[in-house]
Design brief:
The chain is an all-alpha fold. The chain has 9 helices and no strands. It folds into 2 domains: about 55 residues, Orthogonal Bundle (Arc Repressor Mutant, subunit A); about 150 residues, Tetracycline Repressor, domain 2 (Orthogonal Bundle), CATH 1.10.357. Helix content is about 85%, strand content about 0%. InterPro entries: Homeodomain-like_sf, HTH-type_TetR-like_transc_reg, HTH_TetR.
């Protein structure tokens, strides 16, 4: 058990080192110009080790985000089962995701750097769009399943789209202004709260 815990901590440190190295190199010399071998060297691991964690450069940007998304449906179902209403469950989900980002070794500042890269690199934007569509589809389906008396599939999808759209638009405005990590976290909460309040007014 102790050995397993140590192994997981080493893996977590390696993932964080790879992400830090990748973002730093992508920002300094460009995404297209950076190779996975350079990222591995900067992180202090072999290229073979890097490929044990990711399949390529895109995954260096998206891997952590995929982990958080994988938990979102389970968390939303858990909050709904606890008796929270739909708007409150979405608030709780957002709070948990923001807290996890802040608690990660990479932290919110590095997450912001990732987001900037995604907005600047066409192939990353394309994958981010597909990822966001999948997240919204799955979260909408979970919301509908958790509150069938409140939502049909269409209204659940619209509610989730409103929440994610509000957050994404607000974050991009802050990033365009060169906002800090704290400002981004604040605007995520504000946009999420406004979307949740609108949902409460809609469903009563």
């Amino acid at each position: 058990m102790v050995e397993s815990g140590l192994r997981e901590r080493r893996k977590s440190r390696t993932r964080a080192a790879l992400l830090h190295a990748a973002v730093e190199l992508f920002e300094r010399q460009g995404y297209a110009e950076t190779t996975v071998a350079q990222v591995a060297e900067a992180a202090g691991v072999s290229t073979k080790t890097l490929f044990n964690y990711v399949s390529g450069k895109e995954d260096l940007i998206f891997a952590g985000r995929l982990d958080r998304i994988a938990d979102a449906d389970e968390l939303l179902s858990e909050f709904a089962a606890s008796g929270a209403g739909p708007a409150q469950a979405l608030r709780m989900l957002l709070d948990r995701i923001v807290a996890r980002v802040g608690d990660e070794p990479a932290g919110m500042a590095l997450n912001i750097a990732q987001t900037r890269l995604i907005t600047e690199v066409p192939e990353l934007r394309s994958r981010a769009l597909l990822l966001m569509q999948e997240v919204q589809r799955k979260t909408g389906a979970t919301l509908h399943a958790a509150y069938p008396d409140k939502f049909d599939a269409l209204t659940a999808a619209a509610a989730v789209g409103s929440l994610f759209g509000a957050i994404q638009s607000a974050v991009l405005v802050v990033l365009d202004r060169g906002g800090s990590a704290e400002e981004v976290m604040d605007v995520i909460r504000l946009a999420g709260e406004q979307a949740a309040a609108g949902l409460e007014r809609t469903i009563g």
